[in-house]
Amino acid sequence: MKYADWLNTRGLEYRNDVLYFAGMNTLDIVEKYGTPIYVINEQMVRERYKKLKKFVNSEYKKNQIHFAVKANSTLSFLRVLNSEGASFDCTSQGEIFTCFKAGISSEKIIYTGNMFTEDDFEFAVKNDVLVNLDSLSQLKRLADIYEKLGKEKLTISFRINPEFGAGEHIHTITAGKDVKFGILEGQAIEAYRKAKEFGFENFGIHQHIGSGIINAYDYEKPTEKYLNIVKTIAKTLEIKFEFIDFGGGLGIPYQPKEKPLDLNVYSKIVIKPFLELLKSEDIGEPEFKIEPGRYLSAESSIILTQINTIKNNGYKLFAGVDAGFNTLLRPILYDSYHHIIPCNKKGKEKSLTYDVVGPICESGDILGKNRELPELNEKEFLAILDAGAYGFTMSSTYNSRPRTAEILIKDGHIHKIREAEAYDDLLKKQIIPDHLK
Ligand SMILES: Cc1ncc(COP(=O)(O)O)c(C=O)c1O
User: Could you list the active site residues?
Assistant: First the structure.
């Protein structure tokens, strides 16, 4: 794919050397709204969902796509996906609360927590949210809470750890014997047998093997093992599944030369074997579920940031910007690549190699290492791409830097959807005891 086409797939183009995003001039945006700022392209969110939904529908109609809220929990973002018909995957009470505030109803939510507390279970049961358990030990505690609250038991599901994982970084691989998530094959039958004993009558099953998977063949071994486990449970316990959830993990090409995930291969590795199992075994008519976060959200957003310092230390060139790992954590956390481009490349013929660095007082505050960029000057602007997944949700106030604003572009109009935090917000919850006043 040509570079300009790659930019185009994320709603970006240069018009007379000025960067436009979702049809809007990025220089106008920074002038009006300041930096650093998260900018979301609403149309891109809708397109990503529609494309995936259409694809899954073409393979098997009875499906639900649950957006993984941890990737992007901004209310307006969730509202866009909700209006497209998406369902949601939550990992905490806070995410469920946020979904409710976004107008999402409880039956669209699956609660895949880990290390659940009693309070988590009470919250879920009171709010009629389906719980996906992560440990055998949690089953009785959840059953007790249903009894205590006198609520009818909803579908119960367990997260299976198929022992084969994949992902962009060791910390995003979520399957394997020494990984904290899910229950291993050896406990799977016991889990569902006990669930039956505790009076659960409807069953789902779940796996999520990791995040940032760009090669669909990485799903092969885990899926094979998972579907075998599904089959064994169904046969041994005569269980019919309401749903089989294959988790998220679908990656995106953060680098212009990377090939996107091939959905046809994904189907061959994941969906087709699922359909074969439906044909060959009596496991009910389960819904096919997936939980993509990144795939639906990453490319929809950019961060606009201003260069404040060009430093040549005699050895290396640094472009110092006003976004740091407080704004985008992924580069330092996962060694992740985010493409960085200038908002204005007018008259720039020369290219130089820069480390693009933030203002955080840590040497690891590097947003892009050894980046070939047109010669940069102080006060100019850069765009950091593919920031819509695990971007704002992982941002922090480290170094007492308030979180940024967010804006949403829709049909040539800009909507402010989050105010930048103020210094007062940093201090709001602190209490000074009398003896220190
Ligand atoms: C249980 C679960 N489902 C879905 C996801 C979404 O992953 P991704 O954004 O890679 O699709 C995650 C991410 O960590 C997860 O833990």
Answer: 361
Q: Show the domains of the chain with their CATH numbers.
A: 3-41+299-427 (2.40.37.10), 112-292 (3.20.20.10)
Is this structure's pTM higher than 0.85?
A: yes
Q: Are 348 and 377 in contact (CB under 8 A)?
A: no
Using one digit for the tens of pLDDT, what is the confidence trace for 212-263?
999 999 999 999 999 999 999 999 999 999 999 999 999 999 999 999 999 9
Residue 24 DSSP SS3 = strand
Question: What's the CA-to-centroid distance between 209 and ligand 1, angstroms?
Answer: 8
Pocket probe for ligand 1: among 66, 160, 291, the residue whose CB has the most ligand atoms within 8 Å is 291
8 Å CB contact between 180 and 220 = no
d(CA 271, CA 266): 7
Nearest residue (CA) to ligand 1, atom 16: 208
Structural element, H or E, at residue 6: helix 3-9
Q: How much distance in Å is there from the Cα of 100 to the middle of ligand 1?
A: 20
